Amino acid sequence: MSELSGLELRHLRYFVAVAEELNLSRAARQLHISQPPLTRQIQQLEAVVGAQLFTRTARGMALTEAGKVLLGEAGNLLAFTRQAVERTRSVAMGKVGRLDIAGFGSMMLDAVPQFLARFRAAHPRIELVLQTLNRREQVVALQQGRITAAFIRQGDGPPDLASEPFMVEQLVAAVPADHALGRRKRVALRDLVQLPLVVQGSGPRPNFTDTLLAMFADAKLQPQVTQNVGDSITAVAVVAGGFGVAVVPRSATHLKLPGVVFLPITDVTPGISNLVCIYRALDQSAALQTFLAEMREFRMEMGKGEASPAP
Hints:
single chain, alpha/beta, Arc Repressor Mutant, subunit A, D-Maltodextrin-Binding Protein, domain 2, 3 domains, 9-stranded mixed beta sheet, two-stranded antiparallel ribbon, 10 helices
């Protein structure tokens, strides 16, 4: 073992050059060194492995049986080393890695999956692993290092987590299709107090439930809250069952449930839901930085269309 400690990659690189050329002078020119140092390197290698690697012939040089074995192994070792260096460099540049991403509810029906699909296409060597976690579970999973980032509706979070704006989403009303409101083209908040209100929100307060209730309070309206569910998808399902009305992010309109229609709300101020990406503030991993950079570009492009970038 002590003798093998003297083996260096340059020994193998020089050996392969000589073995391929079977001529010291040509090998030295290929390696951009003079012949005497190359000869010494081959002699050192033979001393380390304890075997003669070349023999002299009338035509120049030939590999011994031991040399032929070493040539095959040396090529594999050098190729493995190059791959290791390339992979390490790719990881450092954010081109290779793994990202565990969490989301929840209606946000997983529209812009978030669009962005994730785009990211996978642009960075196929970064593995994306998706998890469905509510807000409280996302925060705990981030703090424990079980996920890399998560998408949530904007709200206060622990100081050890940073947030990056993703998009602004308009709010719409989900109303029963068989009610008089369902035959309208749009509604106002005052119309929604006619029916029981289904609110949704998960995790510590304040959350999306508080955002909805504040909208009615600003309009000096008192809704009849009868159901409080965990997410917008469930809220729409409850409305479809005839249990009332709900105010949900526009992404929930992708749900095609019978018995419910979605209508614009005319007097909601601001009438939006800010969707953000949260992650550990001290996480400087290259893959995460690549993810955030791609997300900023996606957000800018979305801002040119119907959705507006978050402020």
